[in-house]
Amino acid sequence: MSTSPESRAPRLRPPPFTPRPRSQTSSYPDSLRYPSTRSTTPSLTSSISSKSTRSTTPSLQPPGTPKYKATISAESRIGTKGPKNLHVRHTSRPPSPRKRVDATPSPTPFIHPVDPEAGLLDWKSLEPDLSAEIDERDLAGISSSTPEDKVLVSVRVKPPSGEGRDNQAWNISPDENLITLDPRHARSTGKATEHRFDAVLTGSDNRLVYQRTARSHVIAAMEGYNSLVFAYGQTASGKTFTLMGDENEPGIIPRALKDVFGYIRKNPTREFLLRASYLEIYNETVYDLLSPSSSGSLGPTITDAGVVNLREEVVTSLKGIKDVLERGDSSRRTASTDWNERSSRSHSVFRLVIESREVGIDGRSESPSQGVPQTPGGTRLQTRGGRSVQSSVLSLIDLAGSEKATSDKERTREGKYINTSLLTLGTVIGTLAENAAKGKSDHVPYRNSKLTRMLQPSLAGNARVSVICTLNGSTSAIGETTSTLGFATRIKKVQLHAVKKEIIDTDALLERYRKEIEELKARLEERERDAPARNRRLSARQQIDESRALNDMSGRIKQLTKLILTSETVNESKGDQSRPSSPSKLDFSQSPYELQKELLLSKEEIERQATLILSLEASLEQRAVVPLDAPEFEKDAKIIELWVIPLYYDVWRKNVWPDEDNRQKQVKEYEFVTKRYEENLGEPLRAVKEDVEKEWAGKLEALEEKLRASDSYVLECERGLEKERQIRLKLEEEKRALVAFVSDLDSALPSLRGLVPPLTMGTSHSYTGTMASSPFRPTLSALTESNPNSPTPSPVKTKSPRKKSSVSIPHGNPTMNDSTRAATLFDQTPEDDLIDGDASFTVHDKENHAITI
Ligand SMILES: Nc1ncnc2c1ncn2[C@@H]1O[C@H](COP(=O)(O)OP(=O)(O)OP(=O)(O)O)[C@@H](O)[C@H]1O
Fold this sequence. Notes:
Elements: H1 5-8, H2 22-26, H3 35-39, H4 42-52, E1 71-72, H5 74-78, E2 88-89, H6 97-102, H7 116-125, H8 136-139, E3 152-158, E4 170-173, E5 178-181, H9 183-189, E6 194-196, E7 199-202, H10 206-213, H11 215-222, E8 227-233, H12 239-243, H13 252-266, E9 270-282, E10 285-288, E11 301-303, E12 306-308, E13 313-315, H14 318-330, E14 334-335, E15 343-344, E16 347-358, E17 389-398, H15 409-438, H16 450-459, E18 464-472, H17 478-492, E19 502-503, H18 509-537, H19 540-563, H20 567-573, H21 592-623, H22 632-656, H23 660-674, H24 677-680, H25 683-752, H26 780-786, H27 819-823, H28 825-828, H29 831-836, E20 842-844, E21 850-852
Parallel strand pairs: 3-7, 3-18, 8-17, 8-18
Antiparallel strand pairs: 1-2, 4-5, 5-6, 9-10, 9-13, 9-16, 11-12, 14-15, 16-17, 17-19, 20-21
Helix pairs in contact: 4-19, 4-21, 7-21, 11-13, 13-20, 15-16, 15-17, 18-19, 19-21
The structure holds adenosine-5'-triphosphate.
């Protein structure tokens, strides 16, 4: 890779400030330089430093005493079956110290009765030979033999099961690397029916698949090239089986990790630093599988510089790296679909950053004066210290599978995102292939999906790439299989030009650790040298503090040294896998031997945690932005921002809004769906956008329709109520008028008696008129007017200035002959009935016309 002089200049960073509570930092004046060792694990590091590191634990064995090796069974030596077949026979294990107490004293250290240190050493020296775990035969002849400028393309056909055996549409010739569509089905496709690739595989042997498809790329990564291995294919065709495998058939990832450590072991001239990370892309959002809680602005983001804000853990052993893998795997999104019981709903990416450098004969890093040969394949960058560090990334990717719509709505939605990003991957590969074939440089739409954006540097050529296309050979999947083969054919044409990358020493974590170790060692030496003179001036208390500080320093040196892997250290820790996990309950009736074993395991756990602390520190360091000499208030503000606010917010959120996480996730998804299309998306995702918009527009329309219906119902109800109110008012008025009328009538009765026939309900003599204006309040004059025959019209006055009633007095010569009945009129039309019941009554005029009031 060509590097401009400017870019070669070391980018010196000021020592970062790592916020930490005052109480802890203040007790150690120079703790800002090595804050966490002191502040978070003072006793831890000192205990590790003094006891647990194998190389430094004082040995009670006389020099040259042979170490005991436990024998292992033949098959576990061969190592073809993995760790579960590892049978350790403890025949040559020395007797436990308790038994030895009674034995005749012997000059060998193993008979030392009680010294636990001696026990530790004995037990460590007894660890079984795990050469079976890292298979020597596999490592022999490892070399990156793939044509460097081409993608290594393999297809793997999933073996049919059950009835599927009779429905196979493809003929497979592994020896010729050929796959052909059976002539019986060939006519229907109208496409090429014969395909040749770098490897055509079938069956369930993952070892073979690893060797043919991925091993060379893993080794290339160890040699300094970025390497990318991914599986592509329709759902349930075997991508996860190929990458992860199962207990009996570990897949590419576990085998690759084994080879990584095997490679380190076989290369004593280099030292390595490994950092693992694991992410997934789900519904076009990147999630950190090692830190599932990080999200939003703190979550991983894809930038031109790669993926940032992603947790990277320094790993020092095969077991450690497998733990990381398992932890991440447990956070992956899988679900049962119509086709696969455990279908990956996201693209998952396991990344291993490998930094390495030549070391001298004494184990120290080489300087140019020592004449290290130029690493072939890349520019050697030599900066201040003259050191160059090779850096590469091994990416192992299990893509989600392309699929048809499923019966589940949520799965369908995920499926849309999956298909879209795979479509974009296809488009990107197609464009790259065409550019390569025709010597063009057409725009490649990397930015149209997160997956292609992340793969951009690799697909653009700066990596060794291997793709395994997994196929379903059944007749029911001819279309999908043909499409996958098309992808395989296109990607074969992509041109690569990967080169080794060497980075400036200050950017390499390996170099930073190495420098820190050297500085610490120098300081330690100096302080130890001055100790006798200084101690004379110090109080007893100060001397204790001083000795504690020295312990911390040496603990830190040991921890940092452990992170840097060499052939020797990998050899030492290869027993990790076989050791039993620590029981949760301590049984003090165990033999001293067993207890020592427990002790050792616990110490190792402490070491593991300490390693984790260190790698967390490393991530933290990358985030620290306040320089050491920044004003106090700035540091305080940072502490509040990083610790206090998130802490309180978290507590508050959990109390006030327990479902906030889900809500936020949903909001994020909605935001994504609704807002950022234009800036983010290209053609394929626009199709998703339209789909989603259509879906939501339909829902919105239905809701609006419902709203309109309920609005008009409410309006109708209001109108009905108003009508009823009016009627009620009218009735009340009529009631009042009737009451007045009746009382008028009552008072006029004596004078009318003999002239007017008795007014009764339903009788034929009555009055007529409209009821609109107090029909029951006819004035006496009206009555008299209508009864011209009335001899003595009574001057009765109306009580209210109401409109004159149009009630007409019945014709004829009515005679009021039943005053008693008339007086009972109130009884017959009680007030309540007028209001609540049917208020009308009927009277008849002379012509017997019924009038209903
Ligand atoms: N080569 C194989 N040999 C034996 N079993 C296999 C093979 N390939 C796949 N299987 C089995 O088929 C099932 C589906 O495989 P797998 O989950 O790997 O598919 P996938 O392509 O990853 O699907 P998805 O895209 O839905 O995640 C699993 O039970 C797996 O064990």
